[in-house]
Amino acid sequence: MNNPPSPRKKTLFDSINTKIIFMLILSILPLNIIVITSTAASIDVIKEQTRIFMENTANYYLQKLDNRIFSINYFCYNLYNHDADFIRMTELRGDDEYAISQTIVAQKLRTNIETSDSADGYFFEAKEVGDSLFVLPGSRLTGDSNTARKARRELEEWLRSSDLSELGRWSLKQIGGRQWLLRVYSNDGYFFGAIISADEICGDVTESFEYTGLKINARMGQTGVAEEEGYLSVSGVSDRIDLTLSLSVPESKVVQTLPRPQWLMIVAALLYILLIPMIILLLNRILLRPLRIIWRALMRLKEGDRDYRISMRHYSKEFRTIHQLFNDMADSIENLKIKNYEKEMERQKMENRNLQLQIHPHFLLNMFKLVHCFAQLREYESIQKLALYLSNYFRYIFRSERELEEFEQEYNLIREYIEISALRYPGRFAVHYNVDASVPRVKIPPLIIHNFIENIMKHAMDGDNTVHIQLSAGLKEGWVTFIISDDGAGMDPEMAAQINGGAFTSKNGGLAHLGIYNIYQRIKHFYGEKSTIRVESEHGKGTRFTVRFPYDSREVGTD
């Protein structure tokens, strides 16, 4: 069996605000989902296309590099093994023929660099005789002439100072802040080799891309590219040398290449989302706010505020008509109540006497049980106090036909009741009185405050803790205020809310909180609707009742 929805959930779902917001979301959300899904798919396609392009670009330039290396190896092999001038230069040491051969070889190397896409430079190093030959044209290096000269000078210094015997195969070296690919051939005390600028290759790759923020990394070894957060990365490997070329581009730059219609769809989806609060604000102004005013007015009328009226505002004519009809209805109800007021007053006057004469059976039973207990314990003095208290109690109720009595008499009766309760609950409570000197002469309905003290003894004495009771009373600016508080067990918040709302009907249709209901009815009868009974309570922290009603201070002490 399905459980019924909780009242709170049902109330929230029944709200017209919730329904309108729900309808707006249902009307806009599917479109946004379509746009988001389409955009995500487009971004994935662009990423995949960019990845393929990057892979092809890396492989293209690696293929070009492989072709250059093949040309260099072929050229160097022929030069090394078949070129007579090169062989003569390697055999001669320092004579004129050596110088002529060196000049011819240098020209051949320069011609090879300028007429073919192979090496960026060649070098010859005969360390035994301290002779060197460097052919590194500045035109093959990017940057201005000063930058090219500096790079050539740093490269020459490195070649002279390094152990070239370790460079028997193509290697990647960092020289002078630049990356160079080098290959060295050695024989009989001399070294001959070729140089390729890795930075020039990376620069060519960069120029082929239209993205900014491209990262290029060349390194020896066939290792995969490390994925970096927020970057799209690929790598390629040379077929001829052990070189890996890695390319990384920010994903944000790739996303920026989305077609314009796709961006327009995204902007439209965002605008639709932003329109939701604007539409809600508009509906709130022209529909929801007038409806809330009507609902609030009906609730105020239901709670008994017969003077409440809706102020006429500049809403739609339909709502202005409804507001006017409500005011007319409230006036009719007020007029009807005025006509029945005298009959109601007469009826309440008769009921008040009955309310005053009601004695809680629980109170009497407790008193009789206490007499029996004292008798068993032979505490005759306590029995005498209890009998005297009951005598004063019933005399106070029945001795006069007057509806109002000075509070001083009830104040004395309360203190006697406290003394009797101390016999019943020895050491269980402490009482503090804070009563203004003028209050004992104020006339009130009998037993109004006494009943609250009884309730404390009935409900607040659970447990072993000492309960602190305070009775305060004051007369100021035409208002009498009684405050009865304790720090006992407290009451159910729902019960407190019912009392504060004037709701005294139990679930079975009878009266709940009968004692407080009697007090409520009597102060309303004598002091009108402005009189109040308020309760503040919290579990484990106690209860505080405040009784407040208007009073003419000139009547204090008069008959």
Strand content: 15-25%
The overall number of domains is 3
**Can you count the beta strands?**
15
Binned, the helix content reads: 40-55%
The coarse overall form would be elongated
Q: Structural class of the secondary structure composition?
A: alpha+beta
The radius of gyration computed from the alpha-carbon positions, rounded to a whole number of angstroms, is: 52 Å
Poorly predicted residue ranges:
353-357
Largest sheet: 5 strands, antiparallel
Q: On the 0-100 scale, what is the average pLDDT?
A: 79
State the separation between the terminal residues, measured CA to CA: 68 Å
- SS field, number of helical segments: 16
Write out the strand line-up for the largest beta sheet, numbering strands in chain order: 2-1-5-4-3
What does this 3D model show about the protein?
The protein is 55% helix and 18% strand. The protein folds into 3 domains: 29-254, no CATH class; 260-339, no CATH class; 344-555, Heat Shock Protein 90 (2-Layer Sandwich), CATH 3.30.565.10. The protein has a 5-stranded antiparallel sheet with strand order 2-1-5-4-3. α2 packs antiparallel against α8. The longest helix is centred in the N-terminal third of the chain and has 67 residues, at 16-82. Residues 353-357 have low confidence and may be disordered. It contains 16 helices and 15 strands. The radius of gyration is 52 Å and the shape is elongated. The chain has helices at 7-14, 16-82, 84-91, 96-115, 145-161, 198-207, 251-255, 260-302, 317-339, 341-357, 361-377, 380-398, 407-424, 448-459, 493-500, 514-527; strands spanning 121-126, 131-135, 171-175, 178-187, 190-197, 215-220, 231-237, 243-250, 405-406, 429-435, 443-444, 467-476, 479-486, 532-538, 542-550. It has 559 residues and is an alpha+beta fold.
